[in-house]
Amino acid sequence: MDIGTVRRHFSSHAREYDLHAVVQKRVASRLVELIGESGVGPGPALDVGTGTGDLARRLLRSCPGLDLVISDLSHGMTCHAAAALAGSAAVDADAQALPFRTGSFSLLLSASVYQWVNDLPGAFAEGSRVLAPGGRFAFALFGDGTLKELKEAHRLALAETGGRRVSHVQEFPGLAEVRRAMGTAGFSSIHAFAEDEVESHRDVPSLLRCLKGIGAANASAHRPPGLAPRRVISRMMALYAERYARDGRIPATYRVIYGLASKPGGALLRGS
Questions:
Q1: Which pLDDT tens digit goes with each residue over 8-32?
Q2: For an engineered disulfide with 70, which of 50, 63, 135, 262 has Cβ 3.0 to 4.6 Å away?
């Protein structure tokens, strides 16, 4: 993953992100629900990749007065979230190199972020480092199977048109890979599972505009240069509609992987 590209994409779309982030908001709501099922312990919490601060706002509504630090790789996103969360400290931070002391937090939460990192076990280990013993880790990321309709239509379009065999569509980790990364990072009480969220769009251009609006362009360091050929895009749109359209709408499936775990070595008291 080209981290500079990720940073630029999200910084440039900070103002319009919330207009398009329908699935991301559902994911944030679900993650806060999962966190709340076991309570939030004492001590400060860290939101990694806060974006516009939606996850942080939802958590603070559930846990008023929580000492919360928000962080994002994108300076534009950090500033946007900070303006909406005046009572929270805000820091620019890379999930793979967090600028915090070891053992600083009792809870680390993150939604729709870790699919962008290059080294998932390393990023999870960095999360473990900044957690206190007994601290909790709760995250959601987009996994393998996300945008499966778009990927399949693009694959078929490439095959039919003789286009380049390298896809412009982003690849994401699978559930088994995520579980291994959590174990490699040293977490215990690991629970990881996947759920699908399906978004409906008028047509493929509408879906592509939505993806652009949230900054979710392909940031792979191995992505093909330039835009896909027009003939490939045109055929991909036609195939997408032919194979998946129902009642004048097309679906876009997101495979969401949720992870919950603890850092060994202590037991934080449960709170409300």
A1: 444 444 455 555 678 999 999 999 9
A2: 50
pLDDT at res. 165: 56
Is the four-CA dihedral 21, 9, 46, 264 of positive or negative sign? positive
Q: Output b/e per residue, 27-54; b: 16+ Cβ within 10 A.
A: bbebbbebbeeeebbebebbbbbbbbbb
Q: State the pTM of this model.
A: 0.86
The CA distances from residue 175 to 111, 126, 179, in Å, are 16, 20, 6
Report d(CA 222, CA 207) in Å as an integer. 23
Q: Which CATH architecture has domain 3-144+171-198+252-262?
A: 3-Layer(aba) Sandwich (3.40)
Q: Where are the domains of the chain?
A: 3-144+171-198+252-262
User: What CA–CA distances, in Å, run from 191 to 47, 81, 139, 214?
Assistant: 19, 29, 11, 28
pLDDT by residue (tens digit) across 66-101?
A: 999 999 998 988 998 999 898 899 999 999 999 999
